[in-house]
Design brief:
- Helix content is 39%, strand content 15%.
- The strands form two sheets. An eight-stranded parallel β-sheet has the order 8-7-6-5-4-3-10-9. It has a two-stranded antiparallel ribbon with strand order 1-2.
- The longest helix is centred in the first third of the chain and has 18 residues.
- The protein is built from nine helices and ten strands.
- Helix 2 runs parallel beside helix 3 and helix 8 runs parallel beside helix 9.
- It is globular, with a radius of gyration of 18 Å.
- It is of the alpha/beta class.
Length: 284
């Protein structure tokens, strides 16, 4: 990966090695049951553990985007996030918080009222026309995701001529729009599993270095997803090893941020990868 900097509420933070983003889901139907936390005590405990295990970011979501997930009203999403972000900030005050939402109004409140530092939009602005203007006004880093359609019907939009090149093109078009609005800190997420078949996910992983052409930090999220469970015929509870393997492959293809449920395992993968990448063969 190439080093990059993010402006986090006026503090310029430089990242010169791969980072780990821990996932906290304050939902009751996220695809990985063990990731769901409901009470303030459980949210605080999860955030504290992630911070202790070396999380560089904590991503808080209140709307499951798995295929077939139930609709969550804007009011309900806001209610969940307001409480959860406040708890995370208190439990892990030194860790930047990203809010996982595709709604511009929720993103605005998360940043201005609840303390989020980053907006993580899996839809890349496609589900809310106000999202780009909102992040431009907020002056916060923005994670630009790639998804076609909605969480309910996204798997109906998997018709690509060449999946990685098409994703590259679509993300590039959105980056141009953001640049015209003055949004400087953009992280790109090709969104494995969103509007991509099992085969397309692995084709995209194979060609992941093509996304370096976007000249933006690259976030990947494989954690316990169906591209692992279906390929290995295992349950999500048994998908950590597969997740670590794919994370390591992604690191070798330029990934800058690993978005995961299991921070400790991802941090260990990063440490071993960096140790290998920094080794001077001539000195052996």
């Amino acid at each position: 990966m190439k080093p990059y900097s993010l402006n986090l509420r006026g503090e310029l933070r430089r990242y010169d090695r791969p980072a780990v983003m821990g996932i906290i889901n304050v939902t009751d139907d996220s695809f990985y049951a063990a990731s769901r936390v409901q009470t303030d005590a459980d949210i605080a405990a999860r955030a504290a553990v992630m911070a202790a295990e070396g999380a560089d970011f904590i991503d808080v979501g209140a709307y499951s985007t798995r295929p077939g997930a139930a609709e969550v009203s804007e009011d309900r999403e806001a209610e969940r996030l307001a409480r959860a972000i406040a708890v995370v900030r208190q439990a892990a005050p030194s860790v930047p918080v990203s809010v996982d939402t595709f709604r511009a109004s929720v993103a605005r409140r998360a940043v201005t009222e609840w303390g989020a530092d980053i907006v993580n939009d899996v839809a890349g602005g496609n589900l809310d026309p106000d999202m780009f203007d909102t992040v431009a006004e907020l002056h916060v880093p923005y994670i630009l995701g790639h998804m076609r359609g909605t969480p309910a019907d996204m798997m109906e939009f998997c018709d690509y001529e060449h999946v990685t090149r098409d994703v590259l093109s679509e993300l590039g078009d959105r980056l141009q729009q953001l640049a015209l609005l003055g949004v400087a800190d953009v992280i790109v997420d090709p969104c494995f599993g969103f509007s991509k078949t099992l085969e397309q996910n692995y084709a995209m992983l194979h060609d992941l270095r093509l996304l370096e052409l976007l000249h933006r930090p690259l976030l990947v999220g494989f954690s316990r997803k169906s591209m692992i469970t279906k390929a290995l015929n295992v349950d999500t509870a048994d998908a950590l090893n597969g997740t670590t393997v794919l994370n390591t492959l992604a690191l070798d293809r330029g990934a800058a941020i690993l978005r995961v449920h299991d921070v400790k395992a991802a941090r260990q993968a990063v440490e071993l990868y960096v140790r290998t990448a920094d080794t001077d063969p001539a000195g052996l």
